[in-house]
Amino acid sequence: MTAVLGAGMSGLSAAYYLLQRFGYPATVYEASHRVGGWIRTERHKDKGFIFEMGPRTIRPKGIQGANTLQLIEELKLPVDPIKSWQPAAKNRLIYAKGQLCMLPNSLSGIFKTLPPFSKPLISQIKQDLVAGQKKLKLADESIYDFVERRFGAELANYAISPLICGICAGDAKEISVRFLMNDLFEKEQKWGGIIKGVVYEKLFGNKNKTAPAGLFGDSMPKLYEKSLKEKWSMYRVPDGLDTLPQTLRNYLQEKEVDIQLTSECREIIFTRNGVRMNIKGQEVEPKHIISSIPTHKLATCVKNQHPSLSALLMAIQYVDVAVVNLQYNIKDLLKMKAFGFLVPPIERIPILGVIFDSCCFDMEGNTILTVMMGGRWFEENFGKDPTPKKLLDTALQYLDLVMGIAEEPRLTRVHVLRKCIPQYTVGHTQRVSDIRRYIKHYKLPLTLCGAAYDGVGINDVILSARNQVESLRSLDD
Ligand SMILES: Cc1cc2nc3c(=O)[nH]c(=O)nc-3n(C[C@H](O)[C@H](O)[C@H](O)COP(=O)(O)OP(=O)(O)OC[C@H]3O[C@@H](n4cnc5c(N)ncnc54)[C@H](O)[C@@H]3O)c2cc1C
């Protein structure tokens, strides 16, 4: 028997790919009373809107995007795309220097001086040509340092730092350049400059380099082809994103995959013939474990027998995020149409950003907004255990300040998501490879997937599960 730990998107996907690859129904153990992990939707069908407490949209691009669309296609789930020409895809705002600023979204935009920048973006990009052209030997550095070194502090502060807040609620001064710009970093390291690297690789690079589309055989998933043709920028699942894990759960259960809820794994002991696990006080003895649970949880399970592995797992840090969902009974409360806005940390205000949900998707006669707060600065801004009222008041105060919205919302929800996003800080790639090397060295029947290892987005955790399952030669590995 193979046991999958965690029924978030990665654990469910691991069970799905186990079935596909080995025709084998695994048992999934989930600590909570529901599947989906951080994916959580609250529906208000009678009023025509939903609140998403965690993720809400998925990007269709690249191999990761294609892989998720293949899964969605196989599950026959409907999706609702935002096309690249729509305001929610095109318009990206940041709040800087006391105003909402639209980031350039066309070629002509990069030749203009637009606030908050003091010069056109093109001149900042060109700075790469005059910055140091020596080949470097850095293993890693922060994404802030890299961008500041190549393009200057303005781009690092007002473009990259808010983007990092939007993706992982983290501090660009701590997050590894390999998290988001691995390719550009490699180009710089190899050629001495990014633009130089792009040109040289066009001229002298490997022309036969093919995309790792082997995953999909001869043809890409149909839904992916459609997303390219129709220029999707992102998409949602119309009835709420938690329909995705719920549909996957139903599919797996029909194929006799056993999904046990309220079944927390508390201890893992590796034995000669496999594994002995403590699930809610009961002993279970699978041959192999695929763990998709957060690293700090897995660290506790293996601590007694493998303290060094536990310490390696504990070195991956997570942040807390406060999510405030707001519903207004007014259709067009927003003056600007966009996906939302992000706040650069240099502005030192206690919100990470706001998503304009009702601008992205139809919410009938409602304006729906989600305010994200905390992340890397949670404790600094709110202390250890803020009350929901304090979080709501802060969200409303800054909505008024930034967007002039002083109306009382009709319905509000406040959730603090503890340790919800792993931080890929400088050295993360090395940490993950040390963890996997340890497991290989001691021949532990343990495979790792999920948000802590191979990317923090939904696409990443699904592909992480697929790659890890496909790397198993047999279930006795
Ligand atoms: C606020 C927020 C917004 C986000 N927005 C987006 C977005 O718009 N788009 C996007 O692509 N991504 C987004 N993400 C990221 C996305 O949510 C994650 O990539 C994804 O949900 C992680 O899935 P997972 O299965 O790896 O982990 P989890 O969702 O953490 O699942 C792990 C599961 O393991 C269970 N578990 C824990 N300990 C044990 C144990 N000891 N035994 C058994 N079970 C256990 C947990 O209960 C949980 O169900 C967002 C994340 C957050 C927090």
**Beta strand count:** 19
Number of helices: 17
- CATH C-level class of the domain at 2-38 and 242-316 and 425-470: Alpha Beta
The strand line-up of the biggest sheet is 7-6-15-16-17-14-18
Architecture of the domain at 2-38 and 242-316 and 425-470 in CATH?
3-Layer(bba) Sandwich
CATH topology of the domain at 2-38 and 242-316 and 425-470: FAD/NAD(P)-binding domain
Shape: globular
Mean pLDDT: 94
**Share of β-strand residues:** 15-25%
Which ligands occur here?
A: flavin-adenine dinucleotide
What name goes with the CATH superfamily of the domain at 2-38 and 242-316 and 425-470? Answer: FAD/NAD(P)-binding domain
* Integer-rounded radius of gyration: 23 Å
Task: Tell me the structural class.
Answer: alpha/beta
N/C terminus separation: 12 Å
Structural features, described:
It is found in: Mitochondrion inner membrane. GO terms for molecular function: oxygen-dependent protoporphyrinogen oxidase activity. It holds the Pfam family Amino_oxidase. Keywords: FAD, Flavoprotein, Heme biosynthesis, Oxidoreductase, Porphyrin biosynthesis. A hairpin with a 2-residue loop joins strand 11 and strand 12. This protein is 37% helix and 20% strand. It has a domain of 158 residues: FAD/NAD(P)-binding domain. The chain has 17 helices and 19 strands. Helix 1 packs parallel to helix 17 and helix 7 packs across helix 8.
